[in-house]
Amino acid sequence: MRIMNAVCCIVVVLVLSCHGHKTVSGTCSQNLENALFEDLLSMMMKIKGTGKGTDHQDETFSAFSASLTATKTLGAGEIVKFNKVITNVNNDYDPSTGIYTAPKPGVFQFSCTVMTPSGKTLHVGLWKNDTKTVTIYPGQTGYNMGTQNTILELKKGDKVYIKQFGSGKEIFSLSVDSYSVFSGYLIR
């Protein structure tokens, strides 16, 4: 959208430039019109050449969302494998390991919602490489849900995942209802 706004501004500037150089007949000279048109065409080609037009999809953009398909008792320190992939642009999330790998340096947003079976507990955290960054503890009574949202600055190759810690090990989900979900995307 910003590119389209810039193009509109360029057209306005060129029209005003032509208006300021009117000849006696009230129009731009043929040479000036040609020069302005060539400048506009050159700018459009530069924009098109950047690959940032409105229909371009950036190959390094990354986004994913995956859910858990069944209730599970996690092992101590187990990474949660959200195995039902909803979206996996650029395939940077691996459902067989539960690990997201940053394709390039940048700022990323991650979120996770988990649910516990009735009367059970769960302690999980979002980890960056080997460091716990934020935690989720849904509670103990009934079915409980916990959610976290965080923004991380990552380097290419950094690993992000949801991992069990502490005493709570019960996570609830169903194949038809995505109660426990892990998502993330590249902001910039």
TrEMBL record:
Subcellular location: Secreted
Annotated InterPro entries: C1q_dom, Collagen/C1q_domain, Tumour_necrosis_fac-like_dom
Annotated Gene Ontology cellular component terms: extracellular region
UniProt keyword terms in alphabetical order: Secreted, Signal
Signal peptide interval: 1-20
Protein name: C1QL
A Pfam family it matches: C1q
Keyword Nucleus on entry: no
Listed SMART domains: C1Q
Stored Gene3D superfamilies: 2.60.120.40
Top-rank taxon, per record: Eukaryota
Native species: Mytilus coruscus
Domain C1q as annotated: residue spans: 57-188
